[in-house]
Each structure stands twice: as structure tokens, then as C-alpha cells.
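ping. complex inputs:
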Amino acid sequence: MAAGSGGGPADRGEIRRHPLRNLWRLRRYLRPHAVEFGWLMLAGLAATGAGIAVPLVAQRVVDGPVARRDLTGLFLLAGLALLLGLAEALLIFIRRWVQSSSSVAMEAAIRTDVYAHLQGLSASFHDRWPSGQLLSRITSDLSVLRRFLSFGLFFLVLNLVTYLVVVVLLIRLHPALGMLVAASAVPLFLIARRFGRHYHVASRRMQDQQGDVATLVEETAQGLRTMKAYGRGPQLAARFAASTEALHDTGIGKGRLLARTSALLDLVPNLTLGTVLVAGAAAVAGGRLTIGQLVAFVSLQLMLIWPVQSLGWIIANGQEAATAADRIQEVLDTRPAIADRPVAIALVRSTVRGRLRFEGVGFRYPGSAVPVLRGLDLTVEPGETVAVVGATGSGKSTLLSLVPRLHDVSAGRITLDGHDLRALRLASLRGLVGVAFEEPTLFSMSVWENLTLGRPDAGEDEVRAALALAQAEFAYDLPWGLRTRLGEQGLSLSGGQRQRLALARAVLIRPAVLVLDDPLSALDVHTEALVESALKRVLRNTTALLVVHRPSTIALADRVALLEHGRITAVGTHTELLAGVPTYRGLLSAEPAAASIAGTPTSTDPTPGGSPLVLS
Amino acid sequence: MTAASAVPEPPPEADPAHWRGVAPDPNADRSLAEDSDPAAVARLRARSRALLADVLRPHRARLGTAVALLLTQNAAAMSGPYLVMLGIDRAIEPLRAGEPGPLIAVAVSFAAAAGIEYAARRGFLTISARIGQAVLLDLRRRVYAHFLHLPVAFHERYTSGRMISRLTSDIDSIAELVDGGVESLVMAALTIVSVAGILLWLDLPLASVTLLAFPLLFWLSRWFARASASAYRRTREAMALVIVHFVESMRGIRAVQAYRRQARNQHIFDSVNDDYRRSSRHAFHLIATYSPGIKLIGNVTVAVVLCYGGARVLGGDTGVGVLAAFLLYLRRFFEPMQELSQFYNSLQSATAGLEKLAGVLDERPSVAEPTRPVPLPDGPARGAVRFHGVSFGYRPDSPILTELDLAIPAGQTVALIGPTGAGKSTVAKLLARFHDPDSGTVTLGGVDLREVADAELRRAMVLVTQETHLYGGTVADNIRFGRPDADDAAVEAAARAIGAHDFISALPDGYATEVHRRGGRLSAGQRQLVAFARAFLADPAVLILDEATSSLDVPTERLVQQALGSILRDRTALVIAHRLSTVETADRVLVLDRGRIVEDGPPAELIVGGGRYADLHRQWRDSLL
Ligand SMILES: Nc1ncnc2c1ncn2[C@@H]1O[C@H](COP(=O)(O)OP(=O)(O)O)[C@@H](O)[C@H]1O
Ligand SMILES: Nc1ncnc2c1ncn2[C@@H]1O[C@H](COP(=O)(O)OP(=O)(O)O)[C@@H](O)[C@H]1O
Ligand SMILES: [Mg+2]
Ligand SMILES: [Mg+2]
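pong. complex structure:
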């Protein structure tokens, strides 16, 4: 099973307009630190200068005072060397100190923004993107960027400056030989460019594969019970091995590229040096150059070796940063598919009556050809409770997810008190709608935090009432009461306990519209009856849409709507439908029925009231 | 540590920092080996270094080659300037005399040296990338495999975010060491040792003055070692928390959005993110102090040597040339110290990551594979299940099951019912050996589960729960998870048998449809059907169903039951369900309440009695139609 390959960024390996464009776009995060960066560049250059000066002073001591037997001069110059040494250390300290503060601050700022942006992207985005891919963006990609900001960028500038200064000095020392050295920049440039291109591809692949590995690990953690239940450890290990093998191979490929280029970048200055030596020797022999000049030239030229040698590493670092910036911008550039319109209105809770109307609603999941809902009409009157009944996979959950706008309708519209949901502020709408999902989503946080998900300001009494309603008082008996941390996904609770917490959470926000997707499926008959009678009180004056499978729960509803083939084919009270609609009876009958009815909705005869479906 | 250790209690809402809540186990987010007492820390540190040595061991030969290449490269690099001087001193005079031979000789040797340097450098870098990648691969696989071995209980407290953190960000911190470590370590050590030799040989008194710097260097390094070890450790923990929070909020994004949780989440994320920022800034500040500190010691030593050496020259104790050379070499002596300090920093950071990994690797599975597995009996006896006086609790202070005795003969279908929280799933999990009982034994075919090899146990028994998990991949892949060697026809037959074929073939690519992560492409009921097909295909001797049909509509559920009824006719089954329709078809019903079996008998008998089951059954009947 290729977990990592499914979904994810569709535009992998796409050719961008300019490789550094996205990196450049991130400069806004640099801006608040621009002054600091200016200072640290200066400090860095000054430190380098001081570093070069120390040996020069030392040399001067040997040539001057010592030779002249001048003790004061000796101490004076030694004092100077000491001062320069102190200054160098201090400047380096300042540079690194400032650099580390500002680079981690930038890293944190980008991370915060990416997280905020991701929280705003719609459910369909998150369906497509494996969270490991998202995770690797806020971890490894960001640390690559940080490394570039704290070292790569600095040394890039420093080395360029050094290179230029030395070349200018060389040209002034001897124009012809100097130009020869300057000309060596051409092969260097070509090598660097070629390397940059190849490395870009490799580092993109590597970073994507890192995301795949993260995805795989996450999936493993989530599917751990299933893996254990089937004893499929070896298969998963093999799958992981393949994925890490790919990462390993890419890593080696990158290493090879870097090795070749680094070696070439070593070779070029060496060959230049050799050429200078031969040409210089000829010039000296021809009397156009003195030996002293040649020696000076060569020793100056030796200073170029380090800046050129480190070029490979710096380019690699820069390319990785560019790739990281691409990957981060990919996320930041995704516009939320579901967002407030420019003139969205907010409804006041007390004025909301709660008339929910579906008008010709059609819905199709992005990327799938067949619509799940088509031309669905349904009205839920204020305070009314409507149960949606339908076969497995008929689109009940999909329908419910449209109410809090986790997805937007593809056709038709949904209105609340006459307002198109899309004309409402998202925050306002979601504050009015309470949802309990089919699979209760709990977080490894305190019970309190899980309950007050939608109302961080809820008071103790309200929470108690909500827990009582959902028959979830067991929460107080946990070792630390409501402060107990739940295990991951709430798996330290039994299924029914989880479901009741999720229900308590939904009613806690005192919603105008309550949307419950199969909220009692994991409860035993007895608890179910208790929750039902409590829920009934809440439902009396709350508009509610429920999905139910069990005949018992249908008692909660004023009316029942049968969902078939993407539309509501029958609406009425439970008794009416039971009497008049065979499909409905087939779905809810407790009696064993013919196997033929149990097929999926798509395969059965679409006309309601066709052949009698219940044999008993 | 965060909230976990802060047991004093304000009301939960009073302190927003308490969002994480109190973990029942104070060490919830660590492996057991990671304790906070100093001895444990030291042990772990030693163990992490040992782990590093262990993963490097297979690469000894390659490491040797790499070092040899590195030395060659440096010899070649050193010979360059020497050849230049040779050219200037020896080749110019003959050239003036019209004799190009010496210059050509020098040029050729120079080119040769450059060529050797090129080849050696390329070779060295390639080999070290190989070693580094192999080490990372090895670590990833080891840790992953170990995670798979660790029991469910471990994962419940450790959380997937932390597991991801170990296998991604902690490994990354090691990658940084592996990338540049060998070179800086070898070169720096080599230079320092050789230059120290030269210094001693040049001028002993001056050299001893230089050596005075060593206690300072040592002291500074010890300070750095201590401070950075705990700083990086904190960094790793802070990062893990960032990842945990990130992973969970992305996974629960629907709830986050539906409940307008974004602001609060952002607040929490910002706080963990800021913790990470502060801890990593602290770590970087340490190296930002340490590295110039080393530089400072070097520079001061140069100045001291300058004074003292100058005075010695003036006093006639040594020659000017010696002083000049000494100063040149001194510079060379302290420069690599910078590199060493960088290396040391990466090592500290990597060790913090390695500590986390070593902690995981040190974790002994509490549900362990037997050392001498006992084979399960063949034939019908294989499916006999027995609980002998089983007591179990997730926490020592709150037992869930006490002295539970239960015998299920092979081939029997038993329904287990009872209120939520009674311990039904716990019984199922003990039978599936997700946990081992605190006392008593669970046996299968007469063999204690603790003595059955895992692979054999899993072949014999399958647990299907309410939380169906589908892996990313196709529908067929997911069904085949039940029996990896099954062919397409078998996969389809399984799907047909439980009534999943129709919906699967209606999917755009049929069995080859990608289900997306966690099966998000399918509805909850469809996921359950796929999980059933998977169990059907696995064809075990014992099948445990824990509310596995809760999301299905009634007719589909019935179809599943029929299918299972036929396959289960001669197999043992433990079925947990709330819908008593499932229960009616069972041979026997057990009613569990607060961890005790309060009723036991065939459904028909229990109905006529006036017990719990009869009550439940009446309630259930009333709730129908
Ligand atoms: N993310 C998705 N992408 C494409 N199709 C989906 C997605 N989620 C659900 N579906 C399909 O939509 C249909 C309705 O699903 P759902 O609303 O969950 O059904 P149910 O009525 O069981 O709640 C199913 O056939 C399912 O395969
Ligand atoms: N992993 C766990 N860690 C701690 N407590 C748990 C865990 N799983 C279940 N429990 C507790 O054990 C009790 C029994 O749970 P369970 O066996 O799941 O009940 P059910 O009968 O509903 O299946 C419950 O009170 C539950 O909170
Ligand atoms: Mg559903
Ligand atoms: Mg249970």
C-alpha cells in the first residue's frame, strides 16, 4: 500500500518561474529584523577584519620591535593584538547572539502563520493533503530555512564580499594576472548554476519524501490496533523500509552531487593558481614582474580558496532553503475554499429562529465525478427535529457536513432563516450550529478542554448540565475529574463514553441548530434511553437534524426524511413512512429481510414503493 | 516538564495553560528510561552514545577509507602552496636561462596534486554521505520496528505525535551531525595534534605557556557540555509538543472548524511554538557564547605568547625565526578549535535526539513475544477460549475486571452485552492480547496467550472494533490486509460475502479506488464493511467483533451477520453489540456489569428469566418499529 503517494501536493516537481521567487517572497518575515541583520552583517565583517588583522600585527611585532629590541613597542603592539583579539571574539559573540535570536524568531513566526493558515483551509484540502506532508513543512522545512538565515545567507554575503575584495586587489596588483583570476569566475559560475539546478530537484524530492515518511509514521500510529489485530507488523515494516530506502537513495544522490561539485569547486582555484604560477613565472623570466610581486600575488590568491570551496555548501543550503520556501508557500498560497464573503453578515443568536432549508442542493466531492447529492429539498422548521434515514453510503453524513459549511454546496443553496449560509459569517454560522460527528473527535487534552471546544468561556454549571444531559457524568469519576488528560483520540475511554462526551460538547454551545450524526450508535439500550429522554428536552426548542440507524432513536424526531439516490424521496412521521414507503420499512425493520434489499442504494430500484421489500 | 508534573489543582477553567490536563501517568509523554533523576539522565546519555557507536560499527571499514581519503586530500592540498614556492624558487632562474623543464615539472606535479585532491575529496564526500545515510536509515528502521513491537498501552500514552517526532525531527537532528561531522572532527583533531607537536618541538617554554590555555578550554567546554545537554533536551521535548499539537489539530480539523476552535488552538500552538523558540534560542545562545569564548582564549593566548616570546627573543633565549614560526602555527592551532566547537555543538544536539531514540529502544514491550513459543493445537480445539481468574486495570488503582472466569468452547458464538464502560471492550482486548492481565491467564486452545508466538496468534484470532482503520491505498489493498497473499478473486469473494461488493464496484475505480488517508473517501459504514471483508478474508479460528457494525444500516448489518453466521458456524466468536438483533443469533449470551459476568446462558433461556437480559431485551423490543 503506497500511503505516501496518495493525494498530497498535486504540483510536485512543477517548474517554477524563478527558483528563488518563493524564498524572496518570505522576506516579509525578515523585515522586522532588518536592522538586526544590518548590524550583524557589519559585526560579521568587522570580526573578519579583526581576525585578519591579528596575524598581521603579530607579524609586525616580529619584524619591528623584536628586531629593533624595542620593549615598549613590543608591549604596545602586543596590547593591540590583544585588543583586536578581544574585539574579534566580542564581535563574533554579538553576531551569533543576535543571529540566533532573530532566526529562531523568524522560524517561529512562519510556523505560526502556516498553522493559522492551515486551520482556515477547508476539510477538502485536509482530505487531500496527508498531514505528514504538512507536518514536514512546519518542522524540517522551517529548520532548513532557519539554517539558511542564520548561516548560509551570512556566509554567502561574507564570501562574496571577500571574493570581490580579493579579486579587486589582485587586479590592482597585476591587471593581466588579476583578470585571469577574475575569469575563473566563469567556470565557477557555470558549475554553480548546474549544481543549483540538479540540487534543486534532489532537495525537493528529499523534502517530499521526508513528508511521506512522516505520513507513513502517522498512519502507523493511528492504525496501530489494526496492525496488531492482524499481526501485520512485518508488512508495515517492509513498507516503511521501502519509503526510507527511497529517502536514503535520494540522500546519497544529493551527497554525490555535492561531492562532485565540491571537488570541482576545489579544482578550479587550484588550476587557476597553477596557471598563474606558470604565467607569472614566465612574466618574471621576461622581466615584466618581480619575484616579490609574484609572491604577494600568490599569497593573496590563496585567500580565495576558502570562499570558493564553501560555495558548494552555501549553494546547497540556499537551494534547500528555496525548496523549503516553495513548499511553505504552496500551503500559504492555497486560498481557503470556504471563507467569508466580503459582505458577510453575522446573526445574533437571540434573533435566530432556526428555519433550515435545503433548496435543490447538489454536492459533489472535489475530484469525484459522481455527485453524492443532487437536487435535494428539505425544510426543517424552527424547533423541529428531523431524522435523516438512508442506507450506508447514501450521503447522510455528507448532507450534515454542509450545515456548518465544512463543505459548500455545489448546486442549489441552504438557508437559515432565509439567509444563504454562504452569506453568513463563518464564525457566526458555526457558533449557531452544534455538531456531533459520527466518529467522536477527541484530543489528548483535558476533558474540560475537549468539552469546551466550542465555548472556551463556558461555566462550571453549564458543563455539568451538558454532561448530565449526555449521561456523561462518568467524567467526574476519572482520576483527576475534568482535568484528566484523555488518551490520544480519547481511546482511553470506551466507545460509548467518547460518544457521550462529544454529545455534551455539541449541546454545550447552546446551538440554534443541532446536527447529530448517528450520535447514539455506541450506547447500550439503557443509556440510550436515558440520553434520549434528556435530549428530547433540548430538542424541543432547537432545530435539529439527526442521522439515525436505529428505530429506537427515531422517536426523537418529529419527522423523518428518507435519503435515497442523493435526494429526499419521502418525508413524514415515522408511522406514515413505515406504512407507505417500503424502502423505509426495509431500512428500519427489525425483522430479517431478504438479502436483496440489503444491497447498496445505487444498485436497488430507484422507485420508492416498487416491489414489496419486506418479506416478513 | 509541563502540566504533567504540576499536580496542584486550580479549577480547570482558571488556568488556560492547563489545556493538556493531568495525565494519569506522570511519565505519560516519555519512555520509561527517560527519568528526571541525574543518574537516569547520565545512563541514558551513555546509552545514546552507545547507540551511535552501534550504528556506526558496521561502517568501520568505510570510515577507515573515508579518513584515508581525507588525509590524502589534505596532503595534496598542503603540497599546493609548497609546489608554488618551489616553482618560484627553483623554476624561474632556469626559465630565464631558456630552460622550461623545471617549470614544466612543477606545473605537472601541481596538476597531479590538484587531480589527486579532486579525486580524494570527491571520494571522501561520497563515502561519508553513504555512511551518514546508512546510519540514518538504520536508526529509522530500528526505531520504527521497535515502535511496532511496543504494546497498545505504550502508544496510548505516548501519542502518535511523539512517535512522529522521534522518527522525523529527532532523526533530523542527528542528520546534521552525520552530514559534516566526520570531516570537522578528523581534520580538527589531526591539525591540533600535529601542530601541538610542532609547537613543543619549536620552543618548549613558549609551548607550555600555550598549554596554560587548556584548563580554560576544558572548563569552558565542560560548562557548555552541561548547559547544552539540558538545553537541547528541552528543545527536543518542546518540538515534540509542537508536533503533537499540530498533528492532532490537523487530524481533528473538522471539529476544530465546526466548533470555531481556531483561536484557542492558535493560542495553544503559539504557546508551544514559543516554548520551542525560547528553548532553541537558549541552545543557540549557548553555542553563540561557547564558540567566541574559544576564540577569545585563542586570541588572548596569541597576545600572551607575543609578549612572552618577544621578551624571550629580546633576552636572547630564542631566535626571531622561531617566534615567527611559532606565531604562525599558533594560529593554526586555535583555528580548528572553532570547528571542534561546532562539531561538539552538533554532537550535543544529536545526542539529545539520540537520547530520545535510545529511550524508545530501551522500552521493553510489556506485552512481549514469548522466548519459547508454544504452538497452538490444530483442529477444532484451536478455538477454545478461557479466562482463568483474570484481573486487569488500566491503572493500578482502578481495576476494571476482577477475577473473571470464562470458558468458551471452540465453535461457540458468544454475545457479550452490558452497559457502556462495563469492560466489554476490555475483555475483547485482553483476548486479542493488546494487554496482558495483571493476574490470571487467558488461554487459547489451552495455551496461555503469553506463550503463543505473535504471528500464530494473529493468524488464529482477529479483532474487529468500532474504530475501523483503513490505510492509505486502494480498497483491495485494505481488504487484502487480512491475508496478504490473497488474489483478487479472493478479495472480491470476501467483499461479496459481506455485501460490500456492490458499493465497491460503484466506486469510480472499483477495487482500485484510493480510499485516501484513514479511508476518508468512504462513508463510516462503508469503512466498516471493508473492515469486515478484511476480517472475513483473514479467516481466523476466533473472531472478536467489538461493536463492529455500529455504523451500518439495519439491512446491511443483517447481511453481514448472515455472512458471518455461515463462516462462523464452526468457529469461535465473541460478539459485542448493543443491537440485540445481533445477540439473538448467538449460542450464548453473557451480561457484563462492572467487570463481572452477571448472567450467562442461551438467549432463549435468559429471555424467559427475569434478569438483566430479559429487561434489556424488552426495552429493545419496545424500541423497534
Ligand atoms: N471525501 C470524499 N471524497 C469522495 N467521495 C466521498 C468522500 N466522502 C464520502 N464519499 C462518498 O460519498 C458517499 C456518501 O458518504 P456519506 O455521506 O459518508 O454516507 P453515509 O450516508 O453513510 O453517512 C459515499 O458513497 C462515499 O463513498
Ligand atoms: N486505554 C484505557 N486507559 C484507561 N482506561 C480505559 C482504557 N480503555 C478503557 N478504559 C476504562 O475502562 C472502563 C471499561 O471500558 P471498556 O472496556 O471500553 O467498556 P465497554 O464495556 O463500554 O466496552 C471504562 O471506564 C473506561 O473508561
Ligand atoms: Mg455517515
Ligand atoms: Mg466498548
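Chain B touches chain A through 204 residues (CB under 8 Å).
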